[in-house]
Structures are given as structure tokens and as C-alpha cells.
Protein 1
Amino acid sequence: MKFRLFLSSFFVCFAVSVLSAQELPSWKILEEAEVCFEELKYGEALRLSNDALKARKSEIQDEFNTLEISITPAQVRRYGKEFDKVIEILTEREQKKAVSIINKYLDLYGEEYFNNDIYGMLAWLKAKETYPEANYLIGQIYQVEGELETAGYFFEKAYKDRKYLDVYETQYQILYDMAYLAKVQGDKEKLEKMLLLILDDDKNFKDKNFLQSITRTIKQNKSKNVDRLYLIYRAESKFSIKALYELSHIYEDAGMEELSVQCVALATVEAFTHFLGIMEERDSLFSYSNLTKFFIECAKYDDICIWAQENHVWELFYLLALKSKQMGCRSFSTQFLLVLSNSLPDEHFKTLSRMALTSQNKK
């Protein structure tokens, strides 16, 4: 079986090696580069990634030329610059390839991205010869090979060209890898910068009144506010949670405890909101009543539990319980630890919560 799998992965990479010269589309070449990367064939993955860069440059030049030629005739220009009018006249003139190019980018980015202007799309295409996804994969290859400086160069290049990403959310993956490099290299200033860039699109993090409102609820130091905190507040931003986790440690190390608490609290609210939406979609009868029942419901879904572990979610709830005690909110903290020790889906942090609760009750 292992021999068969080896042959399968070998022929995947070998086939692309042969066929790339026959002008496979750049996305297909990059897809196969990713297969080779996952199979630990880093040399072949690097070669294919560079092939994908070359193919993308050629494709974009061809698309630009096709589009420019198709909209040059006076009959087309008289129709205006709006996409619906341009597509109408190009369809009438049987310019199928040009229409296909326009529709491809409208499907990816929408009319507003180009200000509903065909000439805006043309200018954008002229500058789109780069392929940020390929540069990102090259950075990942150099990272696993231990060449961190080179990896950082390609990550930065990919992020710089993020507006050309086919999937907008990929920029967060790039920033997280840049943050990881900064952390490994001990560059705390750059690490904080990368984390703040990840959080730049998080309107909840930027809303100081919202953050202060959350901490006020905690500072009321009422045991009932443990359940109430997640009844009152909602905040959806699933890409922020790991950044908030890392940033909370930076602020804690710098003695900025209030900001550290705000990061942890917001991360728990965002994770809670994300999970609640999933559970309500899967079970229309479920609604939030208290945190204990919420955790019990979370435990029913393996994908939620796995995602929570990968994003430090259970640890964040535990940290919030500890930090609220450090803020002098003993009643809130005790109730929080009690809930976690009884119902948290993660056994490790459930045990730590139980130990912290026992220690707290002895004092």
C-alpha cells in the first residue's frame, strides 16, 4: 500500500513536470506544487511554484491583451464603461473570451471592487502579473527548510500583493506565518505589528467602548455575570482569535494587564459567537441559556472541539477566569472556574480549572 501511495504522489508531480511545458493553467501548476509540498517533496514543490509564477504572468498578459483589444472599437466604447453594458455589446459581437475574463473577475471580486468600470479592471489587470499564492507557498517551503530570512522575504512579497489574492482570507494565513517568524526570531516589535495587522479588520477590537463595556461587566464581580457576559455580547471575527491570544501575552509581559484582559475577553466572545452560529444552524431548537449548557453542546461536535484546540479557545476561557481573579473579581472568577471545571470540553483545562478553583477556595 505504501509503495502504491508513493507511486501515486510521484506520478502526480512527474505528470505536472512534463505537462507544465504544455501551458497548464497557473492554478493547476500551483495546486500540484501544494501536493508535492504536502508529500515533503520540497525541491519539486519549489520548481512548480516558480513555474506557476511564470504561467500566471503569461496568462495575465494574454487576458490583458484580449480585453484591451475587445474594448478598443468605437462601437464598444460608445456603450460606456459599466460592466453590464460592456458585457452586452461584447456578447453581441461574440467576444466570448473577453466576456469570460470579465465574468471571472466579477465573480471573484464583484463590480464595486472595480468601481463598475471596465477600464478600472483593465488597469488592475495590467498590474496583476504577480501571483501572491505562489510566493506564499515558496515562503512556506523555505520556512520548513529553515531558511527563515528567505521565507520572510516571500511572505512579505505575498502580503504586499494581497489585493491580487484569489481568496481574500489568505492574507490572514500569510500574516500569521509572518508573526510566527517574528516570534521565532525574537522580534517582539514585529510580532506585535503583524498581530495588529491581523486585527486591523476586526471592528470589535477597534471599538474601545465595546471592549470597556465587556470589562465593566466582569468588574461588577457578580457570579451571575459569567452566563450574562455571553448573553449580552456578540462579536464575529474568527480570524482574530489566535492574534488576540498572542497579543494578550505581549500586553501581559509589558505590564498592560487591562489590555491583556480585553484581548482575552474579546477572544472568548468571538469564539463563543462563532460556535453559537454553527450550533444554531445545525440545531434550530438550540439557543443559549447558560455557559454550562453551551459547553456541553460544544462537546457534541468534533469539528468545533478540534478548531477550539487549534485556536487556543479553551485556554482563553481558562485564562479569563484567572485574570478576572487578578483584577479582584473573586466572585466572578470562582463561578467561572466552577463552570469550566464541570463542563469544559477539554480535559486538560477542565482539570486546571478544578485545581485553580480548589486553590482559590482555600484562601
Protein 2
Amino acid sequence: MDIKRIEQAFSEVSKTTGEDVDKRIALAVTNIYLSRDQAFDAEMHERAVGIIKKNEGWTSLLRSHLLHIAEAFMVAKKEDLESSLKLVNQNQKELNNAGFWKTSYTYLAALLMKSPEEAERAATMNMYYHDLREQGFTMGNDLQWLSWIMTFDSPAYDPGMVGRVLAIHQLFKDEKIKIRLAQFPILGFLAVTQVGGGRSAERNCGKHA
């Protein structure tokens, strides 16, 4: 994918979400639209945000730091927004029934699930997390973000996806570029969108660190 296209879309998303929103979230929103070959619509964004705030309680994770990511997935589905929000909560409930704690991690899985029966994605995210942990990645929220991003293309486990993340990570090491914890998710975006090449990868990582 064209780096310039990513940067332009990222700029539009960041402008709409505001300076107070974590750049990793803005980058995640950008990738959600680009991976579906959709343009970011600021007006539709605000509409979806309004529906989430109207229907979710103050303690809901969908209303706090997952707000903009939830909005992006709901809009990208091109379905009724309120129905999409109900499905997310149904998926979350199904994950709870399957033994998963209600966390940001499971809400991310719920957003990606097409139905309450698709609990496979949550299991795949967990597998990616443990695979990368065994390869020396530091456990924590940033690794959870990375493992979630790795399921963008498919809820099914793909060992090749792990290999791509490791290869990109090694590329940075070879270029003497240290990847901080906060930059783990960028490895996932590069692997999913298959943006390759030393200079383009370096530019993307350095710009959004």
C-alpha cells in the first residue's frame, strides 16, 4: 500500500479525532478504513460516535478509549449503526460466556466478529500474543494491540503472519532502529498491509512513533 495514501488518511483521521486521542488509535482507525479500501468520512464518524455515546453507559469501554475504533468498524460495515452496536455487545456477551473476561482485548475481538459464534478470532489473537511472547516480545497492552491488528485479514491463525511481523522487526534491527513498546502495533500494520522496504518502513515507524 502506498505510504503517501496512508499518511494522508492518517492526517484526516487525526484532525477529526483531535489531539487528545492517542496516535496509535488514530493509526488503527486509518488502517481499518484503508484495509477495506474505504475513504474516511468525518461526518459519518461523528454520527457513529454520537450513537455510541447515546447507547453506551459511562463505564463502557466502547465509550472511552475504544470509541473511535468502534466507530470505524461500525461505519466500515456499511450497515445500520445501531444494529452494528447491538451486535458488538452480543459478541462481547458470547465471549464472556465462553470464559473470556470483559476487557479491551475482548471488545476488540467483539468488534471484529461477524456473529456471536465467531469466537475463533479471540483465540487467534491469544495465539499470536503467546507466539510473539515466546520470540522475546514484552508482554502487555502494546503486544495485545499488535496481536489484535494481526487478525485484520482473517480470524484464522496464520503462521505466515507471525513470520512477517518477525521479519519486519528484524529489518528494523538490521537498520539499527530500536522498536519501543509503543511501536509494536506498527509492526502489525506493516505486516497486514504488507508495506515493505527498509526506507518506507523506517519512515512509517519514525513518523508515527
Protein 3
Amino acid sequence: MTDLIPVIKAVLMNKKVIFSAIACFLLMDFASYICRYRKKPVQKRVKKAAAAPAPAAQESAGTEGEEDAGDE
């Protein structure tokens, strides 16, 4: 039993073991992300109604009266 502890410590301190453990963790995390992924529902865009050009209509109404008065 006493000979086993230094061997386990040497294995766990090995750089290859540490990097492979990190790589396995990242791979499994990415795979679980793919399994849980849900696409967001498409939202319909609401178009704003165009504002009526009210000032232009008032100007043309005022000039029509003047033209009619000159024709008589």
C-alpha cells in the first residue's frame, strides 16, 4: 500500500495526464452543450406605419382657393 501512493502521485502529476483530463472535460462539456441547444424562436418584425404628410396637404389646400378666385 505504501508503494502505491508515490506511483499514483507520479501519474497524476504527469503533464500528459493533466492535459488529457482537461481535454476530456472540455469535449464532454461541448457535447452536453450541443445536446441542450435549442434554437430561439423566430420573432416577426413589426413594420411601423408611415406617417401621413399632413403639412403638405395643408399647403396645397390653401393655394387652390387663390387659383379659383383669379379665374372668375
